[in-house]
């Protein structure tokens, strides 16, 4: 047992032992390490699905930390109050954490660091959630990038640090200290009917994430260019939920993808570009934080989107009952699995914001409640990209046709069959699971008829183009 004061490791979305610079630095100090997770307002404000996924990921990581001698303390309340109380209770004089980049976390962390330093406490933040710190990537004129391709060209050949090894077991902190419990927190309470279904599809923890990455880079990455847009098969890495909680690092993904590229994998560079697309989302969120709450292009504040979440078209969209199979299949996939194929995300977002002329914030907030891989930067950029109000070099008036898109990427109709039971005499198990997973008050049953389109692709496109033509900006 060490007599040195402990280091507090405040963890948030870095649920892994390997390639965790903050944890590695704390453990390398030779001092006891106390890990603390704070249930503050940012945790309480999470939607149902991401909050549940946070809880099960947290439970798994607590076991991992315990296995190397790191004791975990759970506390509720404002982060500054919790950290200051623990400093007082334990005698800790050092606090480490991994950086977060959303505006609310930045404001919280800045306050915590400032107050701790004023009290003589060593407070230090570390990288690890991104490949590149957002402020280190600049255009030739010194400003942030606003278009993806130049951003990719600027970073694709950058030197990156090596992956940090997982810490070895350390001396435990033995002093008396109170902790709350995950059972008391009950972070999955809001999931209700969807929980048994979504839980089947969650890949929880560092080992599961690494296993999936190895599996992907051993084969599916070779066909990533062709198969990543096919919604009926797992042609992607499937690691978004693990990246969101830091159960695997982007650096680990980059190096394995890069190795695949060196051995001649046809899809590896595209996979690396997708990792950098995630970086681009964080780059934009850092430099233009309003992207998470307001139109990235301010002129779109004047656009006459529908803001009524109770509008029948919005309800039909949420329920996966628009009469457009690609849209409905994608929404139903989300309710059963907690995730949605990326091509599906593009289609349902385009349909809501363009065919149905409804505000992207409606979709952004709905995804934030329903996705176990919710990520503040990716969710915001994806919705604004699809709606036309965000960072997209293509014309804002591009309107995806959800019918021809499904024909292009699923000509055999397997995706619709997998998720829409009303279209078939013998519905699949996944299609039936949708009716068990959705809110009971929706009052939907498998024997209902599949609806006619609430608006056809041609009518929706024409309406959207008319609105764009009439815009006054």
What would you say this structure looks like, in words?
It is globular and about 70 Å long. It has 473 residues and is mainly α. A five-stranded parallel sheet has the order 3-2-1-4-5, sandwiched between helices. The protein has 22 helices and five strands. Helix 1 links the parallel strand 1 and strand 2. The chain folds into three domains: 1-128, Rossmann fold (3-Layer(aba) Sandwich), CATH 3.40.50; 130-161 and 191-287, Serine Threonine Protein Phosphatase 5, Tetratricopeptide repeat, CATH 1.25.40; 298-470, Orthogonal Bundle (DNA Cyclobutane Dipyrimidine Photolyase, subunit A, domain 3).
Keywords:
single chain; Rossmann fold; 3 domains; 5 strands; 473 residues; 22 helices; 6% strand; DNA Cyclobutane Dipyrimidine Photolyase, subunit A, domain 3; 5-stranded parallel beta sheet; mainly alpha; Serine Threonine Protein Phosphatase 5, Tetratricopeptide repeat; globular
Number of helices: 22
- Helix content range of the residues, please? 40-55%
Strand content: 5-15%
In the CATH classification, which architecture of the largest domain applies? Answer: Orthogonal Bundle
- Give a quick account of the main beta sheet: strands, pairing sense, barrel closure: 5 strands, parallel
- What's the count of strands? 5
- Which sequence of strands runs across the widest sheet? 3-2-1-4-5
What does the radius of gyration come to? 23 Å
**CATH fold annotation of the largest domain:** DNA Cyclobutane Dipyrimidine Photolyase, subunit A, domain 3
H-E string: EHEHHEHEHEHHHHHHHHHHHHHHHHH
CATH homologous superfamily of the largest domain, by name? DNA Cyclobutane Dipyrimidine Photolyase, subunit A, domain 3
Overall 3D form? globular
Quickly name the level 1 CATH class of the largest domain.
Mainly Alpha
Which structural category fits the helices and strands?
A: mainly alpha
How far apart, in Å, are the first and last alpha carbons? 68 Å
Low-confidence stretches: none
Number of domain modules: 3
Mean pLDDT: 95
């Amino acid at each position: 047992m060490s007599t040195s004061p402990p280091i507090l490791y405040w963890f948030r979305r870095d649920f892994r032992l390997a390639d965790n610079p903050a944890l590695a630095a704390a453990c390398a100090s030779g001092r006891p390490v106390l890990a603390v997770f704070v249930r503050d307002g940012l945790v309480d404000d999470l939607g149902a699905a991401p909050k549940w996924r946070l809880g099960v990921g947290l439970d798994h990581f607590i076991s991992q930390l315990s296995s190397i001698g790191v004791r975990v303390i759970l506390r509720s309340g404002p982060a500054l109050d919790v950290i200051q109380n623990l400093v007082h209770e334990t005698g800790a004089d050092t606090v480490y954490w991994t950086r977060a980049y959303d505006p609310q976390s930045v404001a919280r962390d800045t306050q915590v660091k400032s107050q701790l330093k004023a009290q003589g406490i060593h407070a230090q933040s570390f990288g690890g959630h991104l490949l590149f710190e957002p402020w280190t990537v600049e255009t030739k004129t010194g400003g942030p990038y606003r278009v993806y391709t130049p951003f990719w060209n600027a970073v694709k050949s950058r030197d990156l640090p090596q992956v940090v090894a997982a810490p070895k077991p350390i001396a435990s902190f033995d002093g008396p200290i109170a902790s709350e419990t995950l059972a008391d927190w009950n972070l999955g309470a809001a999931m209700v009917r969807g929980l048994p279904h979504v839980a089947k599809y969650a890949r929880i923890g560092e080992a599961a994430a690494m296993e999936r990455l190895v599996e992907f880079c051993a084969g599916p990455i070779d066909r990533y260019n062709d198969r990543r847009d096919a919604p009926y098969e797992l042609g992607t890495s499937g690691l978004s939920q693990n990246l969101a909680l830091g159960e695997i690092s982007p650096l680990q993904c980059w190096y394995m993808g890069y190795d695949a590229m060196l051995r001649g994998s046809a899809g590896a560079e595209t996979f690396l570009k997708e990792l950098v697309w995630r970086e681009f989302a964080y780059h934009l969120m850092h430099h233009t934080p309003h992207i998470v709450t307001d139109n990235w292009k301010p002129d779109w504040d004047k656009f006459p989107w529908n803001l009524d979440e109770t509008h029948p078209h919005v309800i039909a969209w949420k329920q996966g009952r628009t009469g457009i199979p690609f849209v409905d299949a994608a929404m139903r996939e989300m309710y059963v699995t907690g995730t949605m194929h990326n091509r599906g995300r593009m289609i349902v977002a385009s349909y809501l914001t363009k065919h149905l002329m409804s505000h992207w914030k409606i979709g952004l907030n709905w995804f934030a409640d329903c996705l176990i891989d919710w990520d503040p930067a990716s969710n915001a950029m994806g919705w604004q990209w699809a709606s036309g109000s965000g960072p997209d070099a293509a014309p804002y008036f591009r309107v995806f046709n959800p019918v021809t898109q499904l024909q292009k990427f699923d000509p055999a109709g397997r995706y619709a069959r997998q998720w829409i039971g009303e279209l078939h005499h013998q519905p699949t198990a996944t299609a039936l699971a949708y009716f068990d997973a959705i809110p009971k008050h929706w009052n939907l049953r498998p024997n209902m008829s599949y609806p006619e389109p609430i608006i056809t692709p041609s009518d929706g496109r024409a309406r959207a183009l008319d609105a764009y033509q009439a815009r006054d900006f």
